[in-house]
Amino acid sequence: MRVLRILLVAVMIGGFTIRVGGCSSAPKPPLYADPQLATMSFETITVLPIVDARIDKSEDFDLEQELGERLESLLADKGYDVERPGDFSDRDRFSHAQVAAMNDAQLASLGPAAAEPLLVLYLNDASGEVGLGASYNLEATAVLVSKRSGEVLWRNKSVQSIGMGGAAGCMVASQMDGKASELALKEMFGSFPERI
Amino acid sequence: MSPCRRIWQPLLALVPFLVVAGCATSSAPVANGGTADPEFQMLVAARSPVVVLPATVDFVAVADESPLAPDEFGGTRVAAHLDTELLRVLDASGLSCRTIQRLPAEADTVIADLLPAASILVDRYSDHEPYQPHLAVLRRLGNADHLCVPVVHVQVGAAEWYNPMSGAMTQSTSSTVLRIALVDMEDGSVSWSAEGLVRALPYNQRQESINPGFAEVVRMILEPTRP
Prior knowledge:
Chain A is α/β, with parallel strands linked by helices. In chain A, 30% of the residues lie in helices and 27% in strands. Chain A is built from 6 helices and 7 strands. Chain A has helices spanning 2-14, 63-77, 96-100, 104-108, 166-171, 176-189; strands spanning 32-33, 44-47, 51-52, 81-83, 118-131, 133-145, 152-165. In chain A, helix 2 packs parallel to helix 6 (176-189). The longest helix of chain A is centred in the middle third of the chain and has 15 residues, at 63-77. Chain A is globular, with a radius of gyration of 19 Å. Chain B is α/β, with parallel strands linked by helices. In chain B, helix 4 packs across helix 6 (132-142). Helices cover 37% and strands 24% of the residues of chain B. Chain B starts with a helix and ends in a 5-residue tail after the last helix. Chain B is elongated. Chains A and B meet through helix 1, helix 3, strand 5, strand 6 and strand 7 of A and helix 1, strand 7, strand 8 and strand 10 of B.
């Protein structure tokens, strides 16, 4: 009985709830979608290396594992074949900061010559805080661009804020980057059309 | 135990937790680059004349990037704070500064064209070619080599949040990014730039004052060597 009471207090004080702030993982309408996108048929989407567009890079974040692999599997679930070139461009070398500053037409010049369309995913910010509890913020943006027309076909963004108070929060702090990434991708791509 | 004590005891026990939890959600400001950079010091050594644009401050909703009215978030005060600090530091560094008020009237149209492009000009990797004619005119009228471009981009989101009953907590999703660049008006290239981030709004409406986090970012960029 005493153990049960202590556990109850720990739950109340420590908290076992993750609150997703700002946005939920429910599909979010895109910030922009070409009216023809739903009827366009493409089998393969070329996903460029994930762009680290953060100003504060102090948070250790595995772009490939947390975002790249998750995005690949999410697009595969929607029926697309996914191509992952190892670099931003076949011809020139670009830094993450250079790609982050590119306009739509410049983005369309990236990737393999035959790629159509290109998907660019940016990590805009990631920050974790650990005190008597833990919280994590993640902001990401995705753009689907047509290499042929040089125009944006789809654009979306997600901001996730998750956290858990008490010792329980501290115990799962190391998993929060993964959870926030998963929620962000689900929210951004929930409304992305499935392959025709 | 009296009923009153029974209620207050657990609440008092929560106080230290709430204090520490509150501290845990405050994010420290970050800056990349500053006036101590060799690129900036080279311009100071050359006593390069500079035209200083007024600070551009824009506010958007973090969720959908829809523009918000700057006046609702203290935008004018933020711009004034940055302009004052920037001129003070540039003057003190020995650079010869020319504000737009000291330029001939024919510069007005050029500046009106450049201000909306400030967020492009401040970025080292953005294409500055379309603005080259404007920069050439400003270079002649201002008799200056460089253009100082200060830009503040604010994303307005949810405030930090903590529920002591459920234990759920989040950081604020608001953020302020400050970018300052010195653009070479001869070729449009960026000679020096610095950027800073604070995960908070730049202005505290309740206290009617500049957020200490934003003031710290300004200081970290403009006076990085000061303790």
